Input
Amino acid sequence: MRVVDMARREINAKTDIAFEYEEIKEGRKVAALRFTITRNARADKPDPLRDDPRLARLVNRLTTHGMTEDAARAIVQTHEPELVEWATTTLARKLKAKEVVENPAGWLRKAIEEDWRPQPTLFAQKQTQARETERQAEREQEDQQVKTAKGRKADAAREKAAIMDYVNSLPRGEREALELGFREYLFTSKIAPFIARRFCG
Output
């Protein structure tokens, strides 16, 4: 009944039905099996390893190489998917190349638990660190440029407000004479657009 037991475990674990069976014997010989099929209560419970296609696929990959379902689920639950993906892909490549892997399930477990992924060389690590330092310096420079631009804009606004306060504080006759002279200067000055943008209005 080993084959039936395996099928029962698979169906009970992965589908929305469950079944049990009993042997009907004639003497010492099993003459028939009586199956009892019920709705699987586990199917109603949320299960990220069943409901997430990527995680379900990883569990399936591990069991394909001889790992028990419980062990495969435990590994997928406790390790990052990228690591499990790398290990199963690497093992598949080894087997396709006819490399001898005596215990594929054991190899997978160790490769995942000890993280056998190739580590970057010291040179590559230094390059990555240098790039990150350069990006950080660029971000800081951009932030400083934004702060400088905001500071200049605030300074210009304060200058304009101070000038307008001074002009408004003058007696009417002096103010009109000053405004008239200033307009004449704007029309004749070579930097009139710059002056106009800052002080007119």
Remarks:
- The longest strand covers residues 29-39.
- The beta strands are 17-26, 29-39.
- The mean pLDDT is 83.
- The CA atoms of residues 65 and 105 lie 6 Å apart.
